[in-house]
Amino acid sequence: MVKLYALSVFRRAPEGGTVLLKGSYDLQSFGFFQRGSVQEFMTFTSQMLVERTQPGGRQSVKEQEYMCHVFVRADGLAAVLVSDAEYPHRVSHTLLTKAIEDCAAANDWKTANTETLRNYKALDVMLARYQNPKEADALTKIQAELDETKIIMHNTIEAVLERGEKLDDLVAKSEGLSSQSKMFYKTARKTNSCCNF
């Protein structure tokens, strides 16, 4: 099952170093006494990734069963998403872009810090909303629906082909049809064979 664990926004200083502006965490899958250490480790890893990513760059780094996705804008505003390895990369980077744009629009991020952004709850809402990528991302939802339709169509075509073979057997065994009717059926079957899969 896909899972998001953390979404954080950082300010990268031109002279070096990063400042955590706001972080949102969903650590319910970890033990109660582990959550503090896990959050601290995710924050440290996220900060390190921001420092090692070029301005204007994106990257995804895998560590065991976790993925860390990072996006650093050219002006120094950055976001990091920690997810499981199964979470779609495209949706992850869409969420990072949305988080950065929302944070920049809602706050003066160049002078902000964790204290001034204490009441900024948009990251919590985004982290909760994007837990299910099929519901949060329209393109992923459409792809899932197309995959489902494709499976249904494939099963339907297989059933029709099986029925066609059974009809062939019945026509061959039928004594009630004249030889002329059987010949007509075989000719029609050959003529329509171009449409079979």
UniProtKB/TrEMBL annotation:
Protein name: Uncharacterized protein
CDD domains: Longin, R-SNARE_YKT6
CC terms in the record's Gene Ontology section: cytoplasmic vesicle membrane; Golgi membrane
An individual GO BP term: endoplasmic reticulum to Golgi vesicle-mediated transport
Residue span(s) of domain Longin: 8-102
Subcellular localization, as worded in the UniProt entry: Cytoplasmic vesicle membrane; Golgi apparatus membrane
Organism (species): Allacma fusca
Keyword Coiled coil among UniProt keywords: yes
Record-level Gene Ontology MF annotations: SNAP receptor activity
UniProt keyword terms in alphabetical order: Coiled coil, Lipoprotein, Membrane, Methylation, Palmitate, Prenylation
Domain of life from the UniProt record: Eukaryota
Topological relation to the membrane, as annotated: Lipid-anchor
One family name in Pfam for this protein: Longin
Function text: Vesicular soluble NSF attachment protein receptor (v-SNARE) mediating vesicle docking and fusion to a specific acceptor cellular compartment. Functions in endoplasmic reticulum to Golgi transport; as part of a SNARE complex composed of GOSR1, GOSR2 and STX5. Functions in early/recycling endosome to TGN transport; as part of a SNARE complex composed of BET1L, GOSR1 and STX5. Has a S-palmitoyl transferase activity.
PANTHER family: SYNAPTOBREVIN HOMOLOG YKT6 (PTHR45806)
Recorded family membership: Belongs to the synaptobrevin family.
Coiled coil, from the record: none
V-SNARE coiled-coil homology domain: residues covered: 138-197
InterPro entries: Longin_dom, R-SNARE_YKT6, V_SNARE_CC
